[in-house]
Each structure stands twice: as C-alpha cells, then as structure tokens.
Amino acid sequence: MKTQFSSFAISALILSATTFTTPAISPDTKEAVKVEKAQATDFSFFRTHRQGKGIAASWGITSSAGVVSFQLQKTYEDPNDTYSEWTEVASGTCNGSRSYKCIDGNVTPGFINYRVLALMEDGSTMASAVSTVHIVSR
Fold first, then answer.
1. Residue 40 — pLDDT band, cuts 50, 70, 90?
2. Helix or strand or coil: residue 78?
3. Residues 100-114 pLDDT 10s
4. Among 32, 33, 100, 138, which lies 20 to 30 A Cα-Cα from 122?
5. Range of 112's domain?
C-alpha cells in the first residue's frame, strides 16, 4: 500500500527545515536588521492569551547565555509577509530568568500576531514562533 502525502504535508516538512529571514526595524537606528528564525532549542515556549481587556504574552528560553534583551512585537498584518510592519509592544533586558511575561493593554479587535525578538551579544537577533490571538470585541 502506497502512502500519499498531501502538498500541505510536504510544504510543512520543507518549511520546518528552512531558516527564514524577516526584515524588522530597529527602534534606535531606524534601519533594517536581519531577523533569523529561532531554532526549537532557543525558545522553550511562547504563548499568548486574552487577559482582561489586553493580551498576556509569556515565553521561556532554554538558556539565557548570550541574550542581552528581549522585544515583544505585534502586527495585525500577515506575519509571513516580509513587508508586514511589526510594532514594539515592550522591551526589557535579560535578567537571567528562564521565563518572562508581558501584557499588551493596547489592542483592537482583529487577528493579532505576536513574536519575541531576542537580541544576542554578537548583535544577531533570534525570533520566536508567531502566536496569534483573535479578538472579536473589546
């Protein structure tokens, strides 16, 4: 018996093995910076959920070695589009903890995509997976 894979399954396998580069805007320099998709071992988890009238985001890292700071970003646009505009929700320094939490109180109805950028000591940036929240009404 032959097993057939759908084009979706094949695409998912190809995408899971691919590293993507997404442009982002650094708030200090206002120039494009290279963002690399994080490997599974860099962020142990990234979750978002509705909390009151805002969105709570929490994430964990397997090791804080080399991480200088974090930046939580969101977009209402397609997160896979390289021209999507990501806006900073919050930022902070890495304090050596393995988990972090932030609340975004400035949300409007729609599909909101969140990601965390980790700024490394060498100047590179690692991005978490994207987490999407759908708000019907405020």
1. very low
2. coil
3. 999 999 999 999 999
4. 100
5. 22-135
